[in-house]
Design brief:
- By secondary structure, the protein is mainly alpha-helical.
- It has 2 domains: 35 residues; 148 residues, Arc Repressor Mutant, subunit A.
- 62% of the residues lie in helices and 9% in strands.
- Helix 4 packs across helix 7.
- The longest helix is centred in the first third of the chain and has 21 residues.
Length: 194
C-alpha cells in the first residue's frame, strides 16, 4: 500500500525470502522458462479483469460520492439532474424507464430535488395525468458544479494514463458496456434502488 510503512520483524522478512527462494528454485528446476516469468509477473496475482473493473468501479463511485457531498447531492441526484438537462420536459414515467429505476423510488428522489428547488414539476400539456420535469435555474447552476466535480474526478482517476491510453480505455469500456446490454449514460445502480 502506498504511503504506509509497516514494521516487519526481521524473521518474517527472512522467512518470506526463503519462501520466495524456494519458489524460484522450484520454477527453475521443474517449469519451462516461460512459466517462470509468468509466475514472477506481479500483475498475474492481483486479480483478473472482472475483479479489477469491480474494484475500480467501487473506488470511483465512492470517490465521486465524496466529491458530491459538499454540494449536498448523491450520485443518483446528479444523474437525474444530468438527464433532465438533456431531456427537459420529460415525464416521470419516461425518466423512470430510461433510468431503469422503480417509479416509486424515482418519485422520492424527485421530491427531494424539488424540495431543494432544483427540479420543477409542471403539468404535462399533452396528458394532465402526468408531470413534466424541468431543471430550475438553481438546478442548472448546481449541475455546472457537478460537471466541474466530474471532470476533476475523471482527471484524478485517470491521471496515470496518457491521452491515447484514455481513448483506448474508453473504446474498450464502451465495447464491454454494449455487450452487457447497459443503457448508455445510465448507471446500473438505479435499477437496484427500490
Amino acid at each position: 500500500m502506498q504511503g504506509r510503512a509497516e514494521a516487519v520483524p526481521d524473521r518474517e522478512i527472512a522467512c518470506r525470502g526463503c519462501q520466495l527462494h524456494s519458489v524460484i528454485i522450484y520454477y527453475i528446476n521443474y517449469c519451462p522458462v516461460q512459466y517462470f516469468f509468468l509466475a514472477m509477473d506481479p500483475c498475474r496475482n492481483l486479480g483478473g479483469p472482472g475483479f479489477l473493473l469491480s474494484q475500480i468501479g467501487s473506488h470511483a463511485a465512492s470517490r465521486f460520492g465524496e466529491r458530491l457531498a459538499p454540494l449536498q447531492l448523491t450520485p443518483a441526484d446528479a444523474g437525474i439532474l444530468r438527464m433532465l438537462s438533456s431531456s427537459p420536459g420529460i415525464s416521470q414515467q419516461e425518466l423512470a424507464g430510461r433510468l431503469r429505476v422503480h417509479p416509486t423510488r424515482l418519485v422520492a428522489l424527485i421530491d427531494g430535488l424539488e424540495q431543494r428547488s432544483l427540479v420543477e414539476r409542471r403539468p404535462n400539456p399533452d396528458d394532465r395525468r402526468q408531470y413534466s420535469l424541468f431543471l430550475t435555474p438553481q438546478g442548472e447552476d448546481l449541475l455546472h458544479k457537478v460537471g466541474r466535480a466530474a471532470r476533476d474526478h475523471q482527471e484524478d482517476l485517470l491521471r496515470s494514463l496518457t491521452k491515447q491510453e484514455r481513448e483506448h480505455l474508453i473504446v474498450l469500456l464502451h465495447k464491454i458496456a454494449d455487450d452487457q446490454g447497459l443503457a448508455p449514460g445510465v448507471h446500473p445502480g438505479y435499477s437496484r434502488q427500490r
